[in-house]
Amino acid sequence: MKVRSSLxxxxxxxxxxxxxxxxxRVYVINKKDPRFKARAG
Length: 41
Prior knowledge:
By secondary structure, the chain is mainly β.
């Protein structure tokens, strides 16, 4: 999992990427390709 201050570029890496808010943090998750995971902050 990558930790970034901005997730805008990471969202466009794969078509199945989704931006999700959980417990006050912003995550990028991808169910089809779990390598593309990221967290903001």
